[in-house]
Design brief:
The chain is an alpha/beta fold. The protein has 10 helices and 18 strands. The chain has a 4-stranded mixed beta sheet.
């Protein structure tokens, strides 16, 4: 069932019905620590389910033990949807609302971050399958993109990176005005703030915004800042910070507050350079779940974020093993806003 435009994407801090996740099962993503990553995933499910419903996509024929475990937990629903990998933020629907307040699933074209990780045929089908499960309309832009590449507030301001949205490995024929037009139609964007992107060593997404800059309220943005000693990464982070301030000024948003959120010092784990970022936190109805990487900056990140969310509990949760897959809690999740349609 298709739906007419325009649509509006609610901010992540607006009221949610559920959080969608996908069971991590891909041995190539976690070649040396899959079971440890799955244990951290269980902790994430339980941390969300304490206050909010969790919908976990899992192939019932392949993930029977996981299904058996999670089905016994309060506020957790397992949904029989098969996936290639666990990064639901990127291939699950980006939920938006139509002019009546009805929930619509925006189904981006998906090619695993520029064709980097085939196969991705199952992940391509997830957005439509979720829409079918929920019995809601879906809208399909002719645009190859991922949910982790966009960030919005509740005032029509959208954050994105040029390195991702304009990358020829996704949309070789599109220019910036065409991309902005899609964001305006499908997400309700009025102002698009463009950062250069590609700032974090080891990142394989071509610079997803949810590793670099996040809204924490209508007028406050946290931005990843240098927490280590890598010169190239440091310069790229400074460039994004500079981009943001220039874009805010250009668009008459000088009153917006920009808060630096230092990255953890660069580290390797399981033989990989980990693109770790505290910007990859997840906002739920009552909590903010912040990745912790077992490094010295973990506590500092919690202390910076806590006063920015005065009405939510800040939860630090281990993510060192999950991050071997090159993502964390925000990458793994997709929020489902409340349906505001008046009956």
């Amino acid at each position: 069932m298709m739906h007419s435009l325009p649509l509006t994407m609610p901010a992540e801090w607006e009221r949610q019905s559920a959080i969608w996740l996908s069971w991590p099962h891909n041995q190539e993503t976690w070649p040396d620590n899959l079971e440890a990553a799955q244990r951290e995933f269980f902790d994430l499910v339980q941390a969300i389910a304490t206050t909010e419903r969790v919908m976990v996509m899992v192939d019932f024929t392949q993930g029977e033990p996981a299904v058996k475990t999670m089905r016994s937990w309060e506020n957790v629903t397992c949904v029989d949807i098969s996936t290639n990998d666990a990064w639901a933020r990127d291939y699950a629907p980006t939920f938006a609302l139509d002019s009546r307040g009805a929930l619509v699933a925006v189904d981006w074209e998906y090619n695993a971050w520029g064709g980097k990780y085939p196969p991705y045929d199952l992940d391509q089908q997830v957005a439509k399958r979720v829409a079918g499960y929920l019995g809601i309309a879906h809208a399909s832009p002719s645009f190859c993109f991922e949910g982790g590449a966009i960030e919005v507030n509740d005032c029509g301001v959208l954050l994105c990176t040029r390195s991702c949205a304009l990358n020829p490995n996704r949309n070789p024929e599109m220019d910036l005005p065409q991309v902005e037009s899609i964001f305006k139609q499908y997400l309700g964007a009025k102002i698009c703030l463009w950062l250069t992107g590609n700032a974090i060593e080891g990142d394989d997404t071509d610079g997803h915004i949810d590793q670099i800059a996040r809204f924490v309220n209508s007028t406050t943005i946290v931005v990843a800042a240098d927490g280590g000693n890598q010169d190239l990464q440091s310069e790229r982070l400074k460039q994004n910070h500079c981009d943001l301030r220039q874009q805010l000024e250009f668009n008459g948003l000088e009153h917006y507050q920009v808060v630096s959120l230092p990255l953890p010092s660069p580290f390797q784990f399981c033989g990989r350079t980990i693109p770790a970022s505290y910007c990859n936190f997840l906002i739920t109805n009552e909590r903010v779940i912040v990745p912790q990487f077992g490094v010295g900056e973990d506590e500092q990140a919690l202390q910076i974020l806590a006063p920015l969310f005065p009405n939510r509990q800040i939860i630090g949760l281990a993510s060192r093993n999950l991050a071997v897959g090159l993502g964390s809690f925000h990458c793994l999740s997709q929020q489902q806003p409340e349906n505001k349609k008046k009956l």
